[in-house]
Amino acid sequence: MDKELLKKFIQGKCTREESQNVMSWFDTQGEEKFLELVENDWHSWEEETSEEGNQLKHILGKIHTRISEKELNLVHKEKQIPNTRTTYKPYSYRKYSLAAVISLLLIAGVAFVIQFSNTPKVEKKVELKRKKIPLGQKATIYLSDGTKVMLNAGSSISYPEKFSKTSREVSLEGEAFFEVVEDKIRPFSVISGDITTTALGTSFNVNAYQENDHIEVALASGKVLIKDNNKEVKRTVLAPGELLNLDLNTGNSNKENFNVKEKLGWTESLLYFNDAGAKEVFSTLKRWYGVEFTFNREMTEKWKYSGEFKNKSLETVLKGISYVKDFDFVFRDGKHIDVYFK
Questions:
Q1: Cα dihedral 278, 282, 284, 287 in deg (nearest 10)
Q2: Which terminus of the chain, N or C, has fewer Cβ atoms within 10 Å?
Q3: What is the C-alpha separation between 276 and 282, in angstroms, rounded?
Q4: Left, alpha or beta for 30 (phi > 0: left; psi -120 to 50: alpha)?
Q5: Can you spell out the DSSP letters for 269-298?
Q6: What 3-state DSSP class applies to 178?
Q7: Tens of pLDDT along 215-237?
Q8: How does DSSP classify residue 152?
Q9: Mind giving me the DSSP string for 224-254?
Q10: Listed residues 222, 247, 264: the one ending a domain
Q11: CATH number at residue 275
């Protein structure tokens, strides 16, 4: 056993692992072996105890006092017992040292408890990474477990660089499609506004843009459990092809089947509209192409449009929609378009 380690142990400066090593060694070697190593040094070691070890010194002083009282009592008793065969010998230094060592072991144990049990544990803060996608762009990232995340324009995701041993959790603003690597021990959860979507191994889409008055979760494969964070009991399980729509104004939700092109087409660069109002059409174009629209008058919700475009320029898309809905548009520059409803 290293003397420096014993010194740290007696002074209460050992780490948890070091203290456990010393106590294990003591259990196998016993007091005598311990005594051989420390009996000539422990007084000086006590003097070198740091200011942080004042509590240890206080306990040590009390132990010394008790040992001294026991010595005096033993000496007094020996003097009163007549013995013709032996003469009285002072209480030996070795016995004193052995008692001190045993006491020190108790002190070190106390110090160990003081250091590791009474000290408040500081939980390691989990550092989160954040990926934000600008308007007009899309991106694909892979999480530490291999899960693939496709982020739509104007979306952001926060996630730990490495998931814990018990769970996988991310936070989403906007829209993303998840292809989750199966892990039966660690569920995968996406927190998006008022709902949490949990899966083991599956693929699903979450649409939770802040400007929308609803949140949608569409399941492509596998199975997910959706929990309304504002209600303790409200839970919904989706099967493939099902979608949950949560109305943020009323708090009501409904489950329905969904059109794959409409909800998942964006992952394949397909722009799809199905009886979409003017507000939905132009807000979608704003995100997809990263532009701003100015209108000559307020948009009406009676205006509906259906159509699809795959890998088309904004000008081509606007021309296609304008033929049906009868409006004009002018590009002021690459980022600003004026729209004139007739």
A1: -160
A2: C
A3: 10
A4: left
A5: TEEEEEEEEHHHHHHHHHHHHT-EEEESS-
A6: strand
A7: 999 999 999 999 888 776 578 89
A8: P
A9: EEEEETT-SS-EEEE-TTEEEEEETTT--EE
A10: 264
A11: 3.55.50.30
